[in-house]
From TrEMBL:
SUPFAM superfamilies: CYTH-like phosphatases. Pfam families: CYTH. SMART domains: CYTH. Residues 2-153 form the CYTH domain. This is CYTH domain-containing protein.
């Protein structure tokens, strides 16, 4: 079992984009409905460039949660997204930006979530120190609406202007 520990931030500006050393297209969809109160996890399929993965995460919102990920054949992943996803497939480009000793993942969303850009940094422990770059804005780690599973049910473009702040 792996434990994912990450912090999420909105961005103040586009200064990070010139620092990106890699970008990859992602498409992901969820196979279970988190509105079902008996659900203890999210199950998703993600196409990342030319690879596909099945991912299971505990439904805890916050700094850390359980995560399992397994590679699956690309054709299976494409078929699953086309036929079994419970909501809209999330489309985004992930950029990697090195800041100090960490690599930040910056997701620029498209489709029903266009306009949303979220930066994440993965940590080895909940109290690990890390450099927050000048382009990182408000932290949204504890705000459920910024999680991909929430975006698949309530896309960013359906939010009020207050919710987007």
């Amino acid at each position: 079992m792996a434990r994912e520990i990450e912090r999420k931030f909105l961005l103040k500006d586009q200064d990070w984009k010139a620092l990106a050393h890699q970008k990859t297209h992602f498409a992901q969809g969820y196979l279970n409905d988190i509105a079902d109160k008996s659900s203890k996890s999210s199950v998703r399929v993600r196409i990342e460039g030319d690879k596909a993965n099945m991912n299971i995460k505990s439904l805890e919102i916050g700094l850390s949660r359980d995560e399992y990920e397994y590679e699956i054949p690309l054709e299976d992943g494409q078929r699953i997204l086309a036929t079994l996803a419970t909501g809209p497939v999330i489309e985004k480009v992930r950029y990697l930006v090195k800041v100090g000793n960490h690599t930040w993942e910056i997701d620029e969303f498209f489709g029903e979530n266009e306009g949303l850009i979220v930066a994440e940094v993965e940590l080895k422990s909940e109290d690990e120190k890390f450099e927050i770059p000048c382009w990182a804005g408000r932290e949204v780690t504890e705000e459920v609406r910024f999680y991909n599973i929430s975006l698949s049910k309530t896309p960013y473009n359906s939010w009020s202007e207050d919710e987007k702040q």
